[in-house]
């Protein structure tokens, strides 16, 4: 074996190939019509290899959504910074979220997830829960600002959800449900600034 091609590297390459094949299958055929067999064939690996990396289709789909989320971020999410103005910190976080929501692949897969959820509410709850794990940076920031006494609310999770809803009303739902074009940079700034100002007017 070539020493440059270690078993770990080969495993990583197969995982990348599986995710790439799964994205193509989900977008082409939809969630229900996509099978692990089809994904394995497109990735040119065995079905057993697919299951070694992902124990089920739901886990694989969630991994894809998480990867798209991670790809839209640059570095760690900015943490709450004591003593600094709240508005610029909030705009940094909202800018990261808007970059994800502007990703065409993410929006396409979100449509697949929603369509799958219509036929299986239980599956939808699981997908939403997995995606919710990736929105923790904003919730953590709100909790930290509340703990520092700079935001006033008895329910930081509810406040963070309100803030996300302000953004998604312009930069997610119209694109997913009505096929509207993703927001441009100027529109993203406008949405982020308006959402931040409304949020801070209520809770700061």
TrEMBL record:
One of its GO terms (molecular function) is transcription cis-regulatory region binding. The keyword Calcium does not apply. Transmembrane segments: none annotated. InterPro entries: DNA-bd_HTH_TetR-type_CS (IPR023772), Homeodomain-like_sf (IPR009057), HTH-type_TetR-like_transc_reg (IPR050109), HTH_TetR (IPR001647), Tet_transcr_reg_TetR-rel_C_sf (IPR036271), TetR_C_Proteobacteria (IPR039536). SUPFAM superfamilies: Homeodomain-like, Tetracyclin repressor-like, C-terminal domain. It comes from the Bacteria. Pfam families: TetR_C_7, TetR_N. Gene3D superfamilies: Homeodomain-like (1.10.10.60), Tetracycline Repressor, domain 2 (1.10.357.10). Residues 12-72 form the HTH tetR-type domain. Residues 35-54 bind DNA. Keywords: DNA-binding, Repressor, Transcription, Transcription regulation. Coiled coil: none annotated. The keyword Repressor applies. This is Transcriptional regulator, TetR family.
């Amino acid at each position: 074996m070539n020493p440059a091609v270690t078993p770990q590297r080969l495993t990583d390459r197969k995982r990348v190939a599986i995710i790439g094949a799964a994205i193509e299958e989900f977008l082409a055929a939809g969630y229900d019509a996509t099978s692990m067999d089809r994904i394995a064939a497109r990735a040119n690996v065995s079905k057993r290899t697919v299951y070694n990396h992902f124990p089920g289709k739901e886990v694989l789909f969630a991994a894809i959504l998480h990867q798209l989320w991670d790809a839209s971020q640059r570095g760690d999410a900015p943490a709450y910074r004591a003593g600094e103005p709240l508005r610029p910190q909030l705009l940094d976080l909202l800018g990261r979220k808007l970059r994800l929501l502007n990703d065409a692949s993410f929006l396409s897969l979100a449509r697949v997830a929603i369509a799958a959820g219509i036929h299986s509410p239980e599956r939808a709850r699981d997908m939403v829960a997995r995606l919710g794990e990736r929105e923790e940076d904003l919730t953590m920031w709100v909790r930290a600002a509340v703990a520092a006494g700079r935001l006033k609310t008895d329910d930081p999770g509810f406040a963070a959800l309100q803030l996300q809803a302000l953004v998604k009303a312009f930069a997610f739902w119209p694109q997913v449900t009505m096929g509207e074009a993703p927001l441009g940079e100027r529109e993203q700034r406008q949405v982020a600034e308006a959402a931040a100002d409304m949020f801070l007017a209520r809770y700061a």
